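cron nightly-structures :: item 1 of 1
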Amino acid sequence: MSSEEKRAWIYAGVAVGVPVVYFAVVLARLSGTDVASVSYVGPMLTAVGVAIAAGIVLNIVVAIARPDEAGRKDERDQQINRFGDSVGFFVMSIGAVVPLGLAMARVEHFWIAQALYLSFVLAALVSAIAKIVAYRRGI
């Protein structure tokens, strides 16, 4: 498995793990409370920060574990990376329609923020999955 494929697996793991914890925390705060009073900004910023830090730390750990593979990219890696990023961009572009529609419908900020965060999460996850599939089966 190339270092770039390992990065895709890390990206997928972080894209699943961190949002699951985030949504569990926020949904626990939501029960029996008006959404306008739910404090989600702190947990959301924490989730974004943890996701970034976890991605960096895990990539460093993998690079230290296999220094001979670290940083090596070939043409196939670059093509797969572009493909996965394009798929993720497509998902994000479509996913952004939901929060836009919620904003136009004057829905509470809470739901707009959750929909936007979920769009980012889905884009990251689909991008990583597309890269993993491309590494395993080809483009």
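cron nightly-structures :: done
DSSP finds five helices and no strands in the chain.
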